[in-house]
Amino acid sequence: MRLRNIPGSREVIAENRWCIPETEPTKGNWHSIFGNDHPIHIEIGMGKGQFILSLARQNPHINYVGIEKYSSVLLRGLQKIEEEPLENIRFIRMDAENICEMFDRDEVARIYLNFSDPWPKDRHAKRRLTSRQFLSLYQNILQSDGVVEFKTDNVDLFDFSLEEVKEAGWRLVAFTRDLHHDETMNQGNIMTEYEERFSAKGNPIHKLIAAR
Ligand code: SAM
Questions:
Q1: Is the dihedral of CA 35, 24, 92, 169 positive or negative?
Q2: Longest Cα separation, the chain
Q3: 193 Cα nearest atom in ligand 1
Q4: Strand, helix or coil at 84?
Q5: Which residue lies with its CA nearest to atom 11 of ligand 1?
């Protein structure tokens, strides 16, 4: 999701109280940032934030951190939180490749990846957010019982992700190739913006849950 550059979006983000600057020493400090010791769940590539904002609204005893690479996209999430303030959510504008700078070992209980960019060329496989390279970053910050939950409609990316989970020595906890018709895995499912768009076109939604 790449919206056109919105002039001034970086400045708006810098001044927003829900947005943590990438330069802030957050590593190991998340419980004091939130002022409680509730578990921390993060979404990488949150887009405009529909999914993570719904989760935060439903689960006041979980702290959520939404990560998004582009200011112009993140801005939409910030506009929504201004309209409906929630205390259990923060955002960071950053590239996920720097995630270990922002979270300490065992600091994160769950990572959500939704409709991540497919990077279809083989030479770009490392950039896919479910690549073994990214899984090894997640391993550094996830608690020992932590999980990654990944949804996509992209069959090639999903097949690649299943392979990478295996190659990285992670455990596949559950998966489905048709989430919306899988009674168990679809329970409590919150649709993302892309999920709404692609399922409306008839594309089956794939989901996997992997544990380190
Ligand atoms: N998750 C949302 C959804 O399901 O509706 C948005 C999906 S969109 C296809 C992927 C999002 O991930 C984009 O907003 C993109 O900017 C962001 N993204 C891609 N690579 C990223 C990275 N390395 N770090 C942080 N965000 C990233």
A1: negative
A2: 44
A3: 5
A4: coil
A5: 45
